[in-house]
Amino acid sequence: MAILIVEDNPTNAMIIKHLARKVTHEEIVVETDGGAALALCHGRVFTMLIVDNMLPGMSGLQFVKAVRLMQRYDDVPIVMVTADHEPRLRAEAVATGVTDFLTKPVEAVAFRKLVADHLGGVPADMVAAR
C-alpha cells in the first residue's frame, strides 16, 4: 500500500515525506498538482492522503471533494496540512471529508502521531522515540 502526499512546495513535501517515513514503511508518493493527484487516485487506492490546500490547478478542498466521490476512498483518512489558519477553512475541510487538519509549520511529533494513529501500526510511545 502507499501514502499520497499532494504538496506543490518541494521543501514542505520533503519534510512531510521524511516525517511520515519515521512511522511507516509504506511507499510514499508525492504529487505537486491536484489534477495529477486525482488521476493517480483513479488508478490506485492509497491508504492515506496528505493534502495541502493551496495547489496549482485545483485547491485541496476541490481535490478532497472529488476523491470522496470515489466509493473506494470512503474510509481512507485524508489529512489537510496548510498554512491557512482560518477556522472557516477547517470547518469547510471537515465538511468536505477531511479526516484531520494540521497547520504549517507542521509540529513533528504531532504529525507522526497523527499518521501512526490513522495507519494503526505504531504505538504512540514508539513515535516519540523515532
CATH class: Alpha Beta
CATH architecture: 3-Layer(aba) Sandwich
- Structural shape: globular
Report the C-alpha radius of gyration, rounded: 13 Å
Strand portion, in percent?
15-25%
Mean pLDDT across all amino acids: 91
H/E element sequence:
EHEHEHEHEHH
CATH fold field value? Rossmann fold
Could you give the count of β-strands? 5
Pfam family, one: Response_reg
Protein name: Response regulator
Keywords: Phosphoprotein, Transcription, Transcription regulation
Descriptive key words:
alpha/beta, disordered C terminus, single chain, 5 strands, 130 residues, Rossmann fold, five-stranded parallel sheet, globular
Explain this structure to me?
Keywords: Phosphoprotein, Transcription, Transcription regulation. Residues 2-119 form the Response regulatory domain. This protein is of the alpha/beta class and 130 residues long. Helices cover 45% and strands 18% of the residues. Strands 2-1-3-4-5 form a 5-stranded parallel β-sheet, with helices on both faces.
